[in-house]
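Cross-check.
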Amino acid sequence: MKIKILLSVFYILFILSSNLLSSEDNKSLKVGLLVPLSGPYSEIGNSLLYSLQLALDEINDKDVVIVPRDSGFNNKEKLGLAINELRSSGVKIIIGPTTHLEFNQVKKYNDLIFISPSNISPEFSNNIISIGVSLESQLIALIEFIKKQNKTKTIIMYPKNEYLELIEQKLNSLNLKNTKTFTYSPNPEVLTGEIEILTNYSQRKRNLALRKKMFEDKEDEQSIKELERLEQLYTLGTVNFDSVIIIDFGNTLKSVLTSLVYTDVDQKNVLFTTINQWFDESIFYENTIKDLYYPSVNYKEFKKYNDKYFKKFKTYPNEITILTYDALGLIYYAWKKNGEIKSVNDFLFKNKIQGKIGTFSFKNGKVTQELDIYKTENKKFIKF
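Predicted model, tokenized:
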């Protein structure tokens, strides 16, 4: 299988290079691609390369040329060499770099434009435009959704890890109302105790014990029925929030959900939401939560893209490849609209742009995605 993938990559590189040689006139649109084509992250790089081949097939314009270069991963020397090679090839606009950590290095190439799939800074930063599914776009979509559900006391939860400072910067910049924040340990053993404090679990347990004691020695029918009702409960009393936003993924997210259920947070009264999970089906098997909502790219387009990708390359893509697919479409749109691309200002469109992942807005130097809200129900992703 690995040999087949390597042969496919070689074939694509050969075709793209051949297109470059046959399109040296000024009418062509040359788009550079900076990805790790070697090393431990080469699988992601190759997947990004495949996605652009799909985009080229759909655009079907022989004047559009992709010039790929191996930039490594957080390798300053390799990245600099790749950019200089692209510049020498006549490339003015580049898809990449893939990580925000490389932004400072590419900013010095102010004669070039970079369209990055990074989701860290959804803005126009000098010569870089980030089009990743940003935390800001997700939080805006979630807060609007929560508001429509008439919820007014939201807890935003996130782990104490390397992203804590970044998350807090984003939250401060949005200046959200009717929200409080709660940080927790990624360690499941510590996490449960922290959630117990958040939900006032111990007091609610005591409330139930005291209430049951009031009816234990009574024999009238009403008291017996009340005691039977209380026996069905785990706690008595409500929590001081009506909705949660959990900024987390994978097993840690599942641990948070499990702890909230363990501490008897009523799912009928509290709305459970999280951030974009890229339609991770493993969340289906987290059966402690009946309804979990989150903002995401358009599921139908995402699935259609994945199926098309698999049909052509016999493997499934990395999630972020759909961003580079959209990036090429965005570049092509700007090129056809303006006749050429001189600076990032050529991407400040007045109208919204429809892509595979959803609708883009480019205003005041900010990139915003209008995301849909989905929920998991009966092992399906359902658009709300």
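Confidence is low (pLDDT under 50) at residues 1-25. The CA atoms of residues 293 and 375 lie 4 Å apart. Passed to J.P. for a second look.
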